[in-house]
Amino acid sequence: MSADDWYLTEDVDDFLARAGGFLRSRPGAHVMQLTWAERVRVRGLAALFGVSGRGREVHGTFFRLQDRGLGLSPLTPEQADSLAARLAALGHAVPSVSADERTAVAFAEAWRRHSGVAATPRDLRLRLYRLGTLTPPEPPPAGRARVLGEQDLDQVVFWCGKFARSVGEDVFLDAATWAGSRFADKRYTLWETPDGTPVSVAGANPLIGGQIQVDVVHTPAHLRGRGYAGAVVTEVSRAALAAGAQDVVLFADLSNPTSNALYQRLGYRTLTDWAGYDFDGG
Fold this sequence. Notes:
By secondary structure, the protein is of the alpha+beta class. It folds into two domains: about 5-125; about 135-265, Aminopeptidase (3-Layer(aba) Sandwich). Helix content is about 35%, strand content about 30%. The chain contains seven helices and 13 strands. Strands 1, 2, 3, 4, 5, 6, 7, 8, 9, 10, 11, 12 and 13 form a 13-stranded mixed beta sheet that branches. Helix 3 (about 75-90) packs parallel to helix 4. InterPro entries: Acyl_CoA_acyltransferase, GCN5-like_dom, GNAT_dom.
């Protein structure tokens, strides 16, 4: 495949006109492409997009937000090589790449060949799950789910801040920075004990391409092991299906066997493993 087979654009509408059908044909595998294209469209963010293929035939895509790394759809080694060749020829500095594991490995190797820049694998490795048949926990813990609204911004900021710190995200959240964060476009649900004490949170992205991603799941360490996370993820998953989602997906940290086992008990099945690489001096 020639490097010229990659069409590049900074126009998200152009990108979606060319690749939207391809992305929606496999929404689970393309969850990050669909999610970030929608955020760029809604928020007016600066981004670069790419489409591999000729005419109406699309084989792969990428996106890159300003000053951030590449997000890739599943690519063959040949497609990854042609993309690396194209970006290197244009003088692009690529700080990192994130994709399904095979694609990430293929691009990291291709980028080294074409740019001479070494890749360092990230410690965080994820598994992408897709919901099969939702299987609620039995018995559920005492309490109830409560959907948070605009009047609950303080609660949302508090819980997302705790989640971000728990997974090592370097972000500062408060009322002033909230709207520009990746957390702002989600719908959040708390699990509360019978006396109204919040003990666990789960968030969900908007319906995009017939799919909803469950994103942000957190229970404070001293409250874990009581079924709260299973209960709130069940409620969020149920709400996603009720909203018309044909697919419900989520990521889990592979180093956390407890959360992976929980999601599988709830009916989530492995879709693919996910990996990231940082490039020295990118």
